[in-house]
Design a protein that fits this description.
alpha+beta, eight-stranded antiparallel beta sheet, five-stranded antiparallel beta sheet, 4 helices, globular, disordered C terminus
Length: 212
């Protein structure tokens, strides 16, 4: 199916792209992620400075898992997004905020897994720009799991093979998963690292790999 770009400028500038990857690419990413899942690599990670119970899900950091980014099909696909000229033009035409896209100089990537009763209450991401990309096996076996942009009472229904890009500082949450296995979300944070910072102090950071 053809990609569908949906720009949103009321209150906050965010972009939705439906049908972002080809079916074969989605299947390949799912195969990689499900292999992680089958080997029980997903773990609960408490949010930064969050109270107990603020989130309930598991995740897996991809940067630590792969010393060589090109060894991961999923990370390679994420790099393609960064260099997607049409997507970048959509962002820049939508709002001046996305001029920062080309200024980012490192990123961090992980996969979240939401199953029945999982949720993530209101929070902000510690980055400049956030991406979320959703995928799961068909037929869909869950309800819930939609994203709420809580500052503006905006609900973003999640769809398989849908990409969302938004300012990381916008508070958002994930509704509780009901009635089923749930879904995976591939996340990438884009950051601007000061020239004198040490990458070793930033968990999951990767300098000069896709963000330039």
């Amino acid at each position: 199916m053809k990609r569908k770009y949906i720009t949103n400028t009321k209150h906050i500038p965010y972009l939705i792209v439906e049908n972002y990857f080809k079916d074969e690419e989605v299947d390949n990413m799912l195969s990689e992620i499900k292999l992680f899942d089958e080997n029980e690599l997903f773990r609960f990670q408490p949010g930064l400075k969050m109270e107990e119970g603020h989130k309930h899900n598991t995740q897996l950091g991809l940067d630590k898992l792969y010393a060589i980014r090109q060894a991961s099909y999923t990370l390679t696909k994420l790099d393609e997004i960064f260099h997607d000229k049409k997507l970048v033009k959509k962002l820049e035409d939508m709002h001046w905020f996305y001029d920062s896209w080309g200024l980012t100089n490192y990123d961090s990537s992980f996969v979240t897994k939401f199953v029945e009763d999982d949720y993530y209450h209101e929070h902000r991401d510690c980055a400049v720009i956030s991406w979320m990309y959703w995928l799961w096996d068909e037929p869909k076996e869950f309800t819930g799991g939609d994203v709420q942009l809580t500052d503006y009472n905006i609900e973003v229904p999640v769809k398989r093979n849908q990409l969302m890009i938004f300012p990381s500082s916008i508070r958002h949450s994930v509704n509780k998963i009901e009635n089923g296995k749930g879904r995976y979300c591939v996340v990438r944070f884009l950051h601007i690292l000061p020239a004198n910072s040490k990458v070793e102090s930033l968990e999951g950071a990767t300098i000069g790999k896709g963000n330039g």
